[in-house]
Amino acid sequence: MDFKKGLAFLLASLMVFSLFAACNPNTTPESSSGEESSLEETASQNETSETSKEETNESFSASESSSKEEGTSAKPEGSSSKPEGSSVKPENSSAKPEQSSAKPESSSSKPEVSSQKPEISSLVKPEEPIVPGNKAYFYDIWEKELAYLASMQLDNGALPMTAAKNGNVTMNPYFADFAAMALLDAGKTYQAQVKKYIQWHMAHLNTAATDYNGVDGTIYDYTLVVDDGVVIKENININDQGKKQYDSTDSYAATFLEVCNKYVKATGDSALIKGYANEISRIISAMGATMDNDLTYAKPDYKVQYLMDNCEVYSGYLAAAELYETALSGVSGASAKAKEMRDTAKKVSDAIEDRMWNMVGKYYEPAVDRFGNSMYRFSWNNFYPSATAQLFPICFGLLSPDSARAQQLYRDFNAAFSTGEDKKTWEQISIPDAFFWGAIPHTAAMMGDKDRVTSYVTNYERAMKKHAYPLYNADIARVAMACYVMASQL
């Protein structure tokens, strides 16, 4: 183009950029102050009503409404069991709903992928009055929630989903991993408890002979029988199909690798992890046991590739790489293993971009088959899994919070679920789901959205009813992590 046209084009571009920068995507919408949370309607339910997602969640299909009836979905933490997590699985993966907009196999302009999640500096207790939204406020909530999480641990090291001194309690290792990661943010305070949890987890790994899919290094969900705070029996959970229960093999392994890596960073206790070098290798193998075309299926007998799970798998491979570079550096072939882990993480992130990013709709497919065909009809009005899955590339490090794509996804999520309306306002904990979804405020904190995080935490304090069901350990952990991130930013 000639000089004048080029100058005109440059000026126009600068004007558009200035207008865009002036917009504040984190503006908190007006809220209805008297609104009752959906959690208050369900908090009186007995803990024994807890079931796995596979037992309670209705499957999504092309003809299904964009929102579910309150209380029908189980918590997703990130894997197929996630609260602060994975996806609801279709009953039959071969019967796929109508696919959304076609997307090309690859994108020519991929967003920059984070090599790892940023480290947060240690917190120092602020000397200021506690006022909602200030550092002292977030520090206070963080400190109290971690203390409660720690109090839930049982004598054998297990970190159950809910507190129990007597009776039965569910031990979901995936949920427990988030509790352990949150506890490690407190310096030396709870390091011994996390060590005890790591030891419990390692002692409960399945062998190829004990895993019903024949995969070594997996771990089941358990029901623990507690008497006066002491575990007297551990029973492997059985699902409604008569199979031993885990909601995933990929995510359970990935998040535990993150626990081990964060433990080494926080404590410097390489000896513990080095003593489990063989087990770490087995867990890595379990994580990748369902890898197909560079993405993992949730588990061998459930061949759906979830966005949530694969974001966790990406982070799990990076955690494994760091373990081979630190605690396991003396193991034979450690350097080659570290490189292999980083290379595999890159392949996962590339596959997520190439086969899950919908260039037309500007969203990630919540779940695909091995060829990248969508397993769900996407809608921003579908809270779970469509909308919530969009936050996982941010909170598991695939997208930098400062990136244009992260900001676009977060803005679109809030356009759908931060409206000020009943069942469509996450910061008021008024969503079409019975659970707390701590992954949302955690992501919001990473995005620097102080207003919404403050609103959520304020409502969380009101709604949690002394940490009663349906509040699980993973959600408590993610709320604590959100407060930790916010306090670190102030």
Provide a concise account of the structure shown.
The protein has 490 residues and is mostly helical.
Structure description:
There is one protein chain. The chain has 490 residues and is mainly alpha-helical. It has a single domain (38-58, 73-489), classed as Glycosyltransferase, CATH 1.50.10. The protein is 43% helix and 6% strand. The chain is built from 17 helices and nine strands. The chain has helices spanning 3-22, 38-42, 53-56, 135-151, 173-183, 191-203, 250-267, 270-274, 277-287, 307-325, 334-356, 383-389, 392-395, 404-417, 439-446, 450-463, 473-489; strands at 167-171, 222-227, 230-236, 291-292, 295-296, 305-306, 357-358, 363-364, 367-368. The strands form four sheets. It has a three-stranded antiparallel sheet. Strands 4-5 form a two-stranded antiparallel sheet. It is globular and about 50 Å long. The termini are far apart. Residues 1-108 have low confidence and may be disordered.
H/I helix tally: 17
Low-confidence stretches: 1-108
Termini separation: 47 Å
The structure class reads mainly alpha
Name the average pLDDT. Answer: 83
% residues in beta strands: 5-15%
Strand ordering within the main sheet: 1-2-3
Largest pleated sheet = 3 strands, antiparallel
CATH class: Mainly Alpha
Radius of gyration: 22 Å
Helix content: 40-55%
Architecture per CATH nomenclature, i.e. the level-2 architecture: Alpha/alpha barrel
